[in-house]
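Render ABC transporter permease in 3D.
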Amino acid sequence: MKQFFQQRVAKHQKKMQRYLRYVINDHFALTMTFLVGGLGFYYADLLKTLPSPFPLGNVIVLVFWLMTLHLGHFASLTQLPDAVFLLPKERAMRQYLVQAFLYSCYLPFGLLILTTAFSMPLVVVASTKVTFQSTAFFILLLWILKASHLFVQQLDFYQGMRPKRWQFYSLWLSSSTAILAVSLFYTYLLGLALAIIQVGSFYLFTWKKNTARLDWERLIQVEQSRLHRLYQFIHLFTDVPEMKGQVKRRKHFDILLQKIPLRQENTYLYLFARHFLRGTEYSGLYLRLVVIGGLFLAFINEIWFALGIGALFLYLIGFQLLPLGQQFRYTTTVLLYPLATSQKEQALKKLLTVLLFVVAAVFSVIVSLTLTNWSAKLLVSGSYFVFVGLFVQFYLPYRFAKTNKKLGI
C-alpha cells in the first residue's frame, strides 16, 4: 500500500505541476509584487508606531496562528472507484493512511514557514523575551500542533467517530490555544514541550487505539471537497477540466436579461449574459475577485497603492472573463444560425464594459471612504473608469484576435 500511495502522489504532483505553469505566470508575479510590497510597506510602518512591549500584539499573533493551523486538510488522495476496488483491502488501508498522514504533514510546512516569518516582527515587538533567533522553534511548534490537528481530522474517516471527532477538536483547540499562549507570554521552550506531549496524546487516543471501520463514502467525499477547493483556486488562472460548473435558475436575474433587445445582432450578447448570470463558473470567479479586491482597498489609504491595486484587480477580472467569448464555439445551433463572427467580439465588449464598470463603481465607493483628499478620490476613481475603457477598447480586441488565430478561426 505504501508503493500504491506513492504512485498516486506522483500522478497527483504531475497534474499539479502542469497547472502551476499557468498559476505562477507573469500576472501572478505582478499581483504578488504589488500585494506583498504594499502589505510589507504598511506592516513596517505600523510596527514603528507600536510601543515595546505590546501585549496586545501577542494576542493578535495567537489568533492569527490559530487561523493558520486550520489551513491545510488531510490529503488521502482517494478516488471514487476506491469504495469498490479497495474494499477488500480495508485492513491494509491503515498503512495507506499512514503515508497519507505523512504527506499531509509535509504539505502545510511551507505555509507555516511563511506565516511565522511574517508574524515574527510583531512577536519581537510585542515581547522583550523573544528574538528572531527563535523563529525556527516557533515553526517547529506550529508544525507539531498541525500534526495534532491532522490526527483529529482523520477521525472523520471512520464509522461512528464523528461525535468523538468534535470532542477531540474542542480539546485540540483549547490545548493549542493554551500552548501558544504559554509560548508567546512565557517561554517557547515550555510551549514546545507541551506541544510534543499533545501530539503524542492525540496519536495514542485517535490513531493507535482506533479500531473502527472505514467510512468509505465520507473518506472519498472529504478528499473530493479538498480537491474542489484546490481547483477553485487554480481556476482563477486557467481552465480546469475537473471544475464542473453548475447551472442555477436564478429567476431574480431575469429582469436583467429582459433589458437585452431580442434582435439577431444581440444573439451572442444574450447567450454570454445568460451564461454568466446562471452559471457558477464565471459569476463565482467574478464575485470572489471583487470581494478580495475590495478588501485590499478597504485597508489602503495611500493614493498610488489604491490606484495600482484597483487597476490590477480590474485587469485580473477582465482577463479571467475573456474565455467567456469562446463558450459557444462548438454549439451546433449557434453555428447553424446566420451570425457574423464580428458579433461575438462586439457582444463580449458590451458585457465586459458593463461588468467592469460595476467593479470600478464599487472600488470607487471604497476608495472614497478610505482616502481623505477629494482630489485623490476623484483621480483614483476616474482612473478606474479610464482603465476599463482602455481594457475593453484595446486589450480585448488584441486578445480576441490572438485567441482566434490560435484556434484557426
